[in-house]
């Protein structure tokens, strides 16, 4: 079992015009991610709350001002080169803007082939290509439709799924997904979330899913941490936090979810039996006049 542990992590940035001369983006972040059993843990909060700072810290892109981040008991900023290469393979990112990952002068194949070569995933080119095609199929992409193309020739959803195909090839213990669906339309968003769920079920990957959107958190299930102004203010199972929030900020986030029709509220769900027949559990309330 692999474990990522954050203990008392703080992140401060120099900032003019502030009383202390710095801005605190993260305060005493302490939590653990484990690969067994595989989890989906969401980190939710508004823009500027410190979510992406945590992602950069875990990925080793930014060293925290205080506290420690450890992988299997070792500080990630003190790993040897070999240990760090192992960490990089086992902790893979998915970012908000997939276009920034690709070099526009190279075909998208390059991102996948670099993973094959760097981590020795296949003994020869034929088996490497077979692995790439298998992983593209696993994320609902037609290899013939994307291989050989340049980044600008693909949609945002296709570019995101190419990064998921890379993850499928590497089979990391952890996926750090930082606002990965905020630029995708509704249908592609659902496909992306379903792939993350498949990764957990079929390949034992634990995902830290970072978002501002509580609807995607509810869809993924698992556990959730709520962060506000750099502090994790609430954590627990998604069902309990969404239905019985204990912190005012969590209630504020829930109250901020727009209703499709504010004048008509549904009191219950639609029941679907084994034959696919839909039956309303209850009728909608009368509109408020």
TrEMBL record:
CDD domains membership: ABC_NikE_OppD_transporters
Keywords: ATP-binding, Nucleotide-binding, Transport
Classification via Pfam families: ABC_tran, oligo_HPY
Domain ABC transporter: 4-254
Gene Ontology molecular-function annotations: ATP binding; ATP hydrolysis activity
SUPFAM superfamilies for the chain: P-loop containing nucleoside triphosphate hydrolases
Region (Disordered): 270-289
GO process terms (BP): peptide transport
Protein name: Peptide/nickel transport system ATP-binding protein
Organism: Kribbella voronezhensis
Native organism taxonomy: Bacteria, Bacillati, Actinomycetota, Actinomycetes, Propionibacteriales
């Amino acid at each position: 079992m692999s474990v990522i542990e954050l203990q008392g992590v703080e992140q401060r940035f120099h900032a003019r015009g502030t009383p202390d001369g710095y801005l605190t983006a993260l305060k005493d972040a302490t939590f653990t991610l484990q690969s067994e059993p595989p989890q989906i843990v969401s980190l939710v909060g508004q823009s500027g709350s410190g979510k992406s700072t945590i992602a950069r810290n875990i990925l080793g892109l930014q060293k925290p001002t205080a506290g420690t981040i450890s992988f299997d008991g070792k500080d990630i900023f003190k790993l040897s080169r070999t240990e760090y290469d192992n960490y990089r393979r086992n902790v893979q990112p998915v970012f908000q803007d997939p276009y920034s990952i690709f070099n526009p002068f190279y075909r998208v194949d390059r991102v996948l082939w670099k993973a094959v070569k760097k981590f020795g995933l296949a003994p020869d080119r034929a088996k490497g290509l077979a692995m790439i095609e298998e992983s593209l199929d696993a994320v609902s992409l037609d290899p013939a439709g994307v291989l050989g193309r340049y980044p600008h020739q693909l949609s945002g959803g296709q570019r995101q799924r190419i990064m998921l195909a890379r993850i499928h090839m590497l089979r990391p213990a952890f996926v750090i997904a930082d606002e990965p669906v905020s630029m995708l339309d509704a249908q592609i968003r659902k496909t992306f979330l379903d792939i993350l769920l498949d990764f957990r079920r079929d390949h034992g990957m634990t995902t830290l899913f970072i978002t501002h959107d509580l609807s995607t958190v509810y869809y993924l299930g698992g556990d959730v941490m709520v962060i506000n102004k750099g502090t994790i203010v609430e954590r627990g199972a998604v069902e309990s936090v969404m239905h019985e929030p204990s912190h005012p900020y969590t209630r504020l986030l829930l109250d901020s979810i727009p209703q499709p029709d504010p004048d008509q509220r549904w009191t219950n769900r639609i029941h679907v039996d084994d034959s696919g027949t839909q039956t309303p559990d209850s009728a909608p309330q009368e509109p408020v006049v």
